[in-house]
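User: Show me a protein chain along with its predicted structure.
Assistant: Here is one chain, sequence first, then structure tokens.
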Amino acid sequence: MAVSPEEIGLCGCWQVIAVQRESLALSQPDAPPTVTVGYYASSLSVAQRDDAAVAAAIRGHWSAIENGTHYRRDVTLGEDACRVADRNAAAVLASLRNLANGIYELARERERTQVATLRSWCQQQTFTSAWPLLQR
């Protein structure tokens, strides 16, 4: 069923895109695939991007997230290995990991670091060295 973006509360949006994904569980090869639908909103008109360009943008978005933020949080900052059971403590640790990742990205963007990895950058940081990056 086609709906306009305004009908679903997304004023200023030109397109709503539904992407169907099928996932296979590698641990259960005989199991049927799991089907999920993801929805995306875009301010680009249909004339500005064809289907292939929209699909490439969605893949690129998820690739950047999986290879960037999630990789850094999971591998570099050890999020998956963390066994904190308290929900509030886990939320605080996730916020601190996001803060460290964000400050590192600011340092790279402003060319204030030559360090190539988040792990080595974190090992060099103190509050007084990181605080000036947040001032501006």
